[in-house]
Design brief:
Blueprint lengths: L3 H20 L40 H14 L2 H8 L8 H13 L3 H14 L4 H13 L3 H15 L4 H15 L2
């Protein structure tokens, strides 16, 4: 049975997605349209906010899928700390989506080596998960390792072709990196 608090959180998630979907651009193919999004950003590190529904997940009220999409949309919005808060609550630590997006958020917070470990773990579980490959390629670019980024681009092409979003995004990142050198 769902609690009233759980229903309120889910209603907030669904309401916010309607506002966020048209606003957010890029990497939109990495999430499915119509999935729930989180409520507006709340700083869960502040004690006065820790009782708010956005900052708690008592008794597993939110599923791993809910937590993933909350983390996804918060990351797309640029609220990386709160996104990480949601992603870390997932029970299945080997969910490739959770691993990949945790890596993405950690990378955006400046912890590149730790992020790459998350991507590599996701790819050990599912070598065909091209989202992790695209983000791993971007991480290689941050390190100045274009050849390794190109290797990931080639792997993405083998797995989903040159028309898939992950290929286009990493190819674009490679092109931008080449233009800046």
């Amino acid at each position: 049975m769902r609690t009233n608090a759980n229903l309120a959180v889910r209603a907030a998630l669904i309401t916010v997605v309607a506002a966020l979907v048209p606003v957010l651009s890029g990497s939109a193919a990495l999430a499915q349209k119509g999935e729930p999004a989180p409520p507006p950003s709340v700083d869960c590190s502040k004690k006065e906010n820790q009782r708010k529904p956005a900052c708690r997940n008592k008794k597993g009220e939110l599923s791993d899928s809910d937590l993933f999409y909350a983390g996804y949309w918060l990351a797309r919005k640029g609220d990386f700390r709160l996104a990480l808060h949601y992603l870390r609550q997932a029970r299945n630590k080997d969910d490739v989506r959770i691993l990949t997006y945790t890596g993405y958020v950690i990378r955006k917070l400046g912890r590149l080596d730790e992020a790459m470990q998350k991507y590599e773990r996701a790819l050990m579980i599912d070598p065909d998960y091209t989202v992790a490959r695209a983000y791993l390629g971007e991480a290689h670019l941050q390190r100045g390792e274009r050849a390794k980024a190109r290797e990931q681009l080639e792997e993405i092409a083998r797995r989903c072709g040159v028309a898939c979003e992950e290929y286009k995004e990493l190819a674009g990142a490679l092109a931008r990196a080449s233009a800046h050198s």
